[in-house]
Structure formats: C-alpha cells, structure tokens
C-alpha cells in the first residue's frame, strides 16, 4: 500500500475519532440537561400544587362572605 493511502486512512481515523468524541460530549450534556429539566418540572409541579385554588370544601366561608361581595358589587 502506498504511503498516501496510509496517510489518508490515518487522517480519516482521526476525523472519525474527533467526531465520535464530540458526539459523546453532546450526549453527556444532553443527559445533564435532561436531569435538570426533570428537577425543574418536579419543582414547578410542587409550586402548582401548593398555590392551587381554594378547594370547594370552603363553601361555608363563601356563604359567610356573600353579604360582603354583594355590598362590593353595589359600590
């Protein structure tokens, strides 16, 4: 095999190796981002659960405040 063929094979192997290393780095970065997004999603779910609307169990409070609401509507 001529020397030019060996040089071509070595250069091709270097290009393939550098590309593979770059792709592995991208994979590791994407896995880290995925883990962070899972944590953020869990945090958002917790915030949403803790700041949800008042449950329907408090109808007695709403009934007690009906005169106040009626007065405010007349103003």
Major sheet attributes: none
Poorly predicted runs are none
Number of domains: 1
Task: Give the CA-CA distance, first to last residue.
Answer: 97 Å
Order of helices and strands: HHH
Overall geometry: rod-shaped
User: Tally the helices: what do you get?
Assistant: 3
Q: Fraction of residues in helices? A: over 70%
Strand content: under 5%
Mean pLDDT reading: 89
Q: Indicate the structural class.
A: mainly alpha
Instruction: List how many beta strands DSSP finds.
Output: 0
Report the radius of gyration as a whole number of Å.
32 Å
Give the topology.
Blueprint: H1 3-50, H2 59-64, H3 66-74
Describe this structure in words.
- By secondary structure, the protein is mostly helical.
- It has one domain.
- 84% of the residues lie in helices and 0% in strands.
- The protein has 3 helices and no strands.
- It has helices at residues 3-50, 59-64, 66-74.
- It starts with a helix and ends with a helix.
- The model has no long low-confidence stretch (mean pLDDT 89).
């Amino acid at each position: 095999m001529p020397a030019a063929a060996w040089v071509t094979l070595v250069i091709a192997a270097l290009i393939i190796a550098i590309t593979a290393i770059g792709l592995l780095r991208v994979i590791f970065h994407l896995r880290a981002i995925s883990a962070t997004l899972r944590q953020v999603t869990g945090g958002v779910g917790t915030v949403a659960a803790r700041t949800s609307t008042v449950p329907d169990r408090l109808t007695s409070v709403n009934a007690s405040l009906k005169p106040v609401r009626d007065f405010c509507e007349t103003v």
